[in-house]
Amino acid sequence: MIHLLPRWVWTGAWALAFIAGIVNVVGFLGFEHQAITHLTGTASLLSAALGHFDRVLILRVGAGLFAFILGTTISGFIIEDSVLKLGSRYSFALLIESSLLIAAVPLMKQTNMYGYYLASCACGLQNAMATTYSGSVVRTTHLSGMFTDLGIALGHLLRGKQFNTRRVRLSLVVITGFISGGITGTLLYDKYSYNTLYLPAAFTGIVAVVYHIVSDRYNAKKN
User: Fold this and answer.
1) How far apart are CA 78 and CA 74, in angstroms?
2) Are 21 and 177 contacting, i.e. CB atoms less than 8 angstroms apart?
3) What distance in Å separates the CA atoms of residue 169 and residue 3, rounded to the nearest whole number?
4) Which end of the chain is more exposed for a tag (fewer CB within 10 A), N or C?
5) Phi and psi dihedrals of 164, rounded to 5?
6) 4-41: per-residue pLDDT in tens?
């Protein structure tokens, strides 16, 4: 599947991972010190809350899980297709993500958990969108799969076996994008606090507009 992805999708994967890196580091540095872009840690917190029967924590963490899933649901409803097709639906999904991040900022400033829920919803939407356009090859909001692929490739290399170089390159694209976003987010958070999220919001909005223009021109030439 990776060899079928056009070059611009690789660029998009880096950009989306960069955005996720910024959002997630703001979550870690913020008042909750909690991951936003993926659910592994959140699911563990929910497990602990259920084990201790902490009703308040169950509701709070469960709401975060629901918010992420809601974002993936929105993406599935808007995009629908399981294969990449240029069209306005991707730009619309990106605009929703941008709006969610913008709305999250004032709430986070008030230490309101709904800000985290909106940011989590935005990341769920993004991850589902990336999964759709890559045929389940690319995940842009977490790195476990990408580091796993690198480890598998290293194991094959040590045994003298061939490995998928494009898969390794794609993993490095997402990893470098996410880490670069994390570094950028850390530096900006130290100075601008939660206003840092306006950067990925603006970036996502700009990408949405550019994508819409490109897809319109592509479809016009095709027709």
Assistant:
1) 6
2) yes
3) 11
4) C
5) -80, 100
6) 555 666 777 888 899 999 999 999 999 888 889 888 88
- Residue matched to tokens 């998928």: 164
Quick: pLDDT tens for 95-131: 999 999 999 999 999 999 999 999 999 999 988 887 7
Helix (H) or strand (E) holding 168: helix 165-192
Determine the residue type at 166. R
Query: What's the token pair of residue 132?
Result: 């759709």
Chain position carrying tokens 């829920």: 117
**Residue for token digits 């913008």?**
102
Q: How far apart are CA 100 and CA 47, in angstroms?
A: 27
**Closest to 94 in 3D by CA, of 119, 70, 75:** 75
